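INFO batch 0412 | record 1 of 1 | parsing
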Amino acid sequence: SLDDFLKRARGGGGGFGGGLPGGMPGRPVIVAGVAILALLWIAFTSFHVIAPEQRGVVAFFGKYSSTMEPGVRFTLPAPIASVKKIDVQAIRTEEFPAAAGENLMLTQDQNIVDLAYSVRWDIANPEDFVFQIANPEQTVRATAESAMRAAVAGVRLNDAIGPGRTVFEAQVQQATQAILDEYNSGIRIQSVAIRNASAPSAVDEAFKQVTAAQQGAQAARNQAQA
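INFO prediction complete | emitting tokens
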């Protein structure tokens, strides 16, 4: 009947007091739901747990505001304020070359050396790390590679593959750090270590023969002097 149809359309109550037509919740229910969602949003975006190895970099409308120490911290809700957690104790490592293959460089005496090395770094200044450079890992790689090529270009092949390489490991570390400091990167270079330095594979056998000949010549000199 028409009366039954109207009652069902009104939610079965015979009037509008319990809700909107079609069973939709009334205004108080909608307001309560919105309030709950707002409280949840504030709770999830305003309270931050910063671990002991972390620092929280706070941005206020996208601009740097402060750096939070470890603990439970509070900020204004997003998007007014945002927090990026940065691990300042982790040591990152960049390997050169990044994939299997040769990494050829030119020495001072116009020889080619295949060099494999690693660069270890961490974050010294979290706010600079977040705001000053867009791609930290790529920046470290590009800077370290440039510094290494410059250092290798200043030494002879024997120094590059022999004991003298420890000297320019320190030079590469200092040069890389100086460039990163110029850009206020917030990055600290911990060490540079050469894993392998040898002649390219195409001439490796000939290079070994030259090395053996040099050692034989030195032995002959020593014997003659004796």
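INFO post-check: The first helix runs from residue 2 to 9.
INFO record closed
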